[in-house]
Amino acid sequence: MKRPLSVWLVTVTLALSPICACRLSEPIIRVPQEHPEPLPEATAADVDMDGDMLARLASELPPSAEHGLRSALVMRRGRLVLEQYWNGYDQAAQQDLRSATKSITSLLVGIAIDQQLIRGAGEPLRSFLAPVYPADLPSFARNITLEHLLTMRSGLACNDRDAGSPGQEDKMYRERDWVRFFLALPSLGPPGEAAFYCTGGAVTLGRVIAEAGRRPVPVFAEEFLFAPLGIQGARWATFDDRRQTDTGGHLALRPRDMMRIGQLVLQRGRWGDRQLVSREWIDQSTSEHTQLDGGKSYGYLWWRTRFPHRGSQVSAVFAGGNGGQYIFVIPELELVAVFTGGNYNAKKAQRPFRLLERYVLPAVR
Question: Would you say residue 173 has pLDDT above 50?
Answer without folding.
Answer: yes
